[in-house]
Fold each of these.
Amino acid sequence: MEVVKTIGIGTFIVGALLGLTVFGMWGCPRYSVWQQGLAGEAELKRAEWNRQIAVKEAQAKKEAAISLAQAEVERAKGVAEANKIIGESLQNNHDYLMWLWIEGLKDAGTHEKIIYVPTEAGLPILEAGRFQQQPEVAAGDH
């Protein structure tokens, strides 16, 4: 009986090893295919998410550009309105413009500046040669 038990256990072990080998030969390729399928699905999902991220970033840039353009238009409208107000307030206001011009001369100083004085005809008196350097004459060159 012991021999039968030993043969039975040995046969069982050989059968189990043979069964595992056959199962491994059949299962390993299928597992590899299954694993590659999962890896492909994961890669596809990653690519889809990356595409969605790129689209969202592009949409955000577009919206930011539109907002910046609208802000620039509004700023330009404000500048245009301010220029219009200033222009209208300066029309027919010769005395204010003259005072403003005189004040500007005070602030700038007059060192080495040419000042144009308006005459009755509205033409300035020009002193174009006022600052030209005269060559110095040596004492013996007369």
Amino acid sequence: MNEHYKQHDIEAIDVIRAWNLGFELGNAIKYIARHNHKGDPVLDLEKAIWYLRSYIDNYDLERKYSDTVTGVTHL
């Protein structure tokens, strides 16, 4: 097992599962948790941002679709 998995008492995968974060949020947490323990910290934080942006973009698409179906308008 790689050393960046063993840096803390709690592994990122345990948090992701316990909080039921799913793929995109889970990957963001994973990259944030490990950013100082392997390779290039900034690159890992940029990956976390990418996953957060993807989640937000998909969330917005789902909300817009739902709003179209239900007729709900957000400010």
